[in-house]
Every structure is written in structure tokens, then in C-alpha cells.
Amino acid sequence: MTDRPEPRMLTARQRDIVRTAQAVLESDGWDAVSMRGIAGKLSIKAPSLYKHLAGRAELCAWLVEDALFEMGDALYEAIDSDPDAPVEALLRTYREQALAHPERYRLATGREFNRADLLPGLEEWAGTPFWLVTRDEHRAQALFAMAHGLVTMEMDLRLPEESDLDETWRAGGQAFTGR
């Protein structure tokens, strides 16, 4: 288990760039996030962006970090708020977070990117709530895999239309709690 890493200290302009990129990401997906497009939305020329960040790969890392901090904070809060049913609270929150920000979720969990660009320890910290509710690294990975797979299938509309997804999520939690 690791402590929560300190977020990067971004300048005001870098925060503007991230917020603008997040808006484009959420509305149009990662493929629509371009340096030229972000610059245009900020009313500056694209080369000016490179004074504030190295390029699209660094922007991706900042967006993923933001998503991991948000998800991690929400998961820690969820399991702390419901100590009698921490698996259920974790799964409910994981699902809510992923469905509320599907493109951010996909960027953080479904794209290949250079993990070395992320803050050290951030991924481990964000994933620790799965270990906290299972107390076993293999069960934690299995719980994460179940949650990730199920939410991805839900976002992609890959489950039968008549499925009771709330019941499916409950069943997934019961597989890890025996309740």
C-alpha cells in the first residue's frame, strides 16, 4: 500500500490546457484531442502550447493522472463510508465514476501509454482500495478485472438489452463477499 502521491504542480496555463483537453476528451474522445485543437480553443497558436508541455503524450499522462486521482479518491471515500459493505460500496462507486466520465475512464484504463510518464506510485495508490476490501493481491486483481470488464461491457452496450445490470453488479460483488 502506498500513500497518496502529491499531484503535479501545474501552472495556471497548464491547468487551462488540461481542462480544455478534458472537455474535448469527454465530448469527442481521445482521437479528437489535438494540440492544434486545444490551442484553438484557448485562442493561442499551437506552437505556444509547447512552452507549457512537451506534447500530446505528456498531456495524456496529465489527463490519466487526473482520472486516477479522481477515481482513487472516490474509491477510498466509498470504502471508508460503508465499512459493513466495502466491496459493494467500492463497486458501486467504481461503476458510477466510470459511467460518469467514460472517455476519461477509457483513456486511463484502455489505452496504451507510457506508464513511466505517470507520477510514481499513483497507479498503485489508486488500485489499493481493491486490496483493502479483499486483503489478497490475487482477489484484488480479480475484483478489479470483474469491475473493469463489467463496466466496459456496460459502456459498450455488449450485454443483453434485457439484462438487469444492477443485479449483475450485485452478483459480482457477492462472488467476492459470499453475501
From TrEMBL:
The keyword DNA-binding applies. It comes from the Bacteria. One of its GO terms (molecular function) is DNA-binding transcription factor activity. InterPro entries: Homeodomain-like_sf, HTH-type_TetR-like_transc_reg, HTH_TetR, MT1864/Rv1816-like_C, Tet_transcr_reg_TetR-rel_C_sf. It holds the Pfam family TetR_C_33. Keywords: DNA-binding, Transcription, Transcription regulation. This is HTH tetR-type domain-containing protein. SUPFAM superfamilies: Homeodomain-like, Tetracyclin repressor-like, C-terminal domain. The keyword Oxidoreductase does not apply. It comes from Bowdeniella nasicola. Residues 11-71 form the HTH tetR-type domain. Residues 34-53 bind DNA. PANTHER family: HTH-TYPE TRANSCRIPTIONAL REGULATOR RUTR (PTHR30055), TRANSCRIPTIONAL REGULATORY PROTEIN (PTHR30055:SF239).
